[in-house]
Amino acid sequence: MSRALSILQQWQINSTKFLLRSSSFPQGLSVNAGRTKCPTLCFCRQIQTVTYDIVNASYVPTSQTKQQQQKKTTDKAPDLLESVGAFQKLPMVMPSVDILYSALRKAKRVPPTKGIANIAKRERNRGAKQLDALMKELAIPLREYLENFPKRRYLHPYEQSLIELTLGDGNYEEVLRKVDTLRKKVVSVGKEHASVCAKSLTKREALERLNEGLEKLEETFKREGKAVDDLLNIAKTLRAMPVVDLETPTLCLVGAPNVGKSSLVRILSTGKPEVCNYPFTTRGILMGHIAFEFQHFQVTDTPGLLKRCDEDRNNLEKLTLAVLTHLPTAILYVHDLTGECGTSASDQFVIYKEIKERFSDHLWLDVVSKCDLLQESPVVFIAEDGNNGHLEMARYHKMGPSGAIRVSVKSGEGLDELKVKVHGLLVAQMKRIGNMKTTEGCSVWCWSSVVE
Hints:
Helix content is about 50%, strand content about 10%. It is of the alpha/beta class. Strand 6 and strand 7 form a beta hairpin. Helix 3 runs antiparallel to helix 4 (about 120-150) and helix 6 packs antiparallel against helix 8 (about 225-240). GO terms for molecular function: GTP binding; GTPase activity; RNA binding.
């Protein structure tokens, strides 16, 4: 039966005239003539108790154990990353052949334990140690890859979209699962054969068990080592993805295929995308940079969008939508009214209205490209029947969206005006990003104040 205990220590203080003169006793304590009553001072010292749990056959304070458990839980479930750049931190993956032959060379150089005089014991010791060394040399790199390749659910939403649209849905996780399966098989086979070799009775039997174990491990790794090569290709692909700085204003060029987005990226930034006269020349997200008066900005070229619903879009179109959805970008929408891009002006108008409505919260600038060819291109007229949609369509066919800048990369028309407008747009985007950071900081500060 547990009870709270207290230690009471009592000291008697002899009566003195000084004590009687200087001490003020509580009410009810009196001093009679010829007789002195001495007060008794009592001191109480509380016992501090700490509970302990038995962990690994030793006594460890419970509080420390809980802290360690919380730390392990935190390590297993990191928070969602609020910045991009995880792909550039991926480990360098060695080809499966290099891992295998490097492990074999290191394992065969492992000597037996010194001081073993018996030949049979020495050989089985050497065999067991070499098999164990080979198992570790094969399994440790695989474990490091699994630890350093991030889980997709913990990545930034933009990078999650890149993995899905570039590698295919579920392929990233499937390759990591195969690598983990290979690691487990290597560990299982290595331990099994090392144990068998350690039980050999003769030198010859130990050598046979050693060779058998080496062959089995090599066969297992060769048979399923393709998973490591697949992981190597994934690392190369992801590491080559462009890095977007979330705190740097970004200009995203959007439009139908072959409307001249890549040509404008070459004019406006340091980016050098491929420029060809056929649709979907841009087959990924390409980055460039702009420097205006010691200010640095980003420009991204995106694949073209077609007139269709999201379910029917290909992965290139979904990449464009992922950039607009997950990154703080200003939009430079490019229109081609000449009819040479392969997408009619009517279809471009429908695409434009859909994207404009979906991303209405973005800063926006419209550009009509190839204006040097517009005079030669046929103009489509629509009868004015009072329908506002028809009137807007007719106006779009003639001039493009209201307030659009007409430019021509070939003749240079409108490029100076475009650069000035782009600079103003990116400066406004910079202010917007700064305001967002300030608002988030104030929200965090206010919340912490409320909690305190």
